[in-house]
Design goal:
By secondary structure, the protein is α/β, with parallel strands linked by helices. It contains eight helices and eleven strands. Strand 10 and strand 11 form a beta hairpin. The longest helix has 18 residues. It is globular and about 45 Å long.
């Protein structure tokens, strides 16, 4: 089983609406069961207002109330109204995302917890501002990546593209989370899972493979 040997993990996905939020909440539950002091973070949330929706969902999956850090905005540095890529949502809000603000929040959380699970916005190629894509943000901080994928049509292509981006930016892949929520076509899902599992074992042998069920349970392959 995944042992959470790093202080900070960056959870990304092969696409939007792929299950990063569910995976982050499930990972937090798993870390808690391993007696880790764990907190989740969503540095940039786009769409909506008030407390970040993804943070609220993390807490629901964890079966806990919002924390003081949630209420103080530490777990979500930027909550931008327009549901779009962070660079566009920020521009429409009349601001520019400052990664120093995000880093300060992460350092505060890391000082109080054993594990910080940082959920990104979209995939690794998503721009935070015009001069910085997410993959470079992660590389500059040497965060270990947990990549969320699934078995819906197009997932093989999107996952291999994410793997290529990981290699191109010199990122460390700690785990792959395969989200079974999208297993509508059982044949396609099973074949996709088997293909990606073999590929990950060959090209990222250090990475753990975790299957995510509809009830937020994580199990190794």
């Amino acid at each position: 089983m995944f042992d959470f040997s790093e202080k900070i993990y960056f959870i990304s996905g092969i696409d939007t609406d792929i299950g990063k939020t569910a995976a982050t909440g499930a990972l937090a539950r798993l870390a808690h069961r391993q007696e880790k002091r764990v907190i989740t973070q969503k540095p940039v949330q786009t769409g909506g207002c008030g407390m970040a929706a993804d943070i609220v969902e993390h807490r629901r999956i964890q079966s806990i109330a919002p924390t003081d850090q949630d209420k103080d905005g530490i777990t979500c540095s930027y909550h931008l109204p327009y549901a779009a890529s962070p660079h566009l949502a920020a521009r429409l809000a009349g601001i520019r995302i400052d990664t120093a603000v995000m880093d300060a929040a992460t350092h505060c959380l890391a000082a109080q917890h054993d594990v910080v699970l940082m959920e990104g916005a979209g995939g690794l190629g998503v721009p935070l501002h015009e001069r910085l894509v997410t993959a470079d943000f992660v590389r500059e901080r040497d965060y270990a990546v947990i990549l969320v994928t699934c078995g819906r049509l197009g997932s093989i292509n999107h996952t291999l593209a994410a793997f290529s981006l990981l290699r191109a930016h010199g990122l460390r892949l700690a785990a792959v989370v395969y989200n079974h929520y999208f297993d509508e076509d059982k044949l396609m899902s099973a074949d996709t899972r088997a293909y990606l599992l073999r590929h990950a074992a060959q090209h990222f042998p250090q990475a753990c493979w975790l299957d995510l069920s509809d009830d937020y349970q994580l199990k190794p392959a």
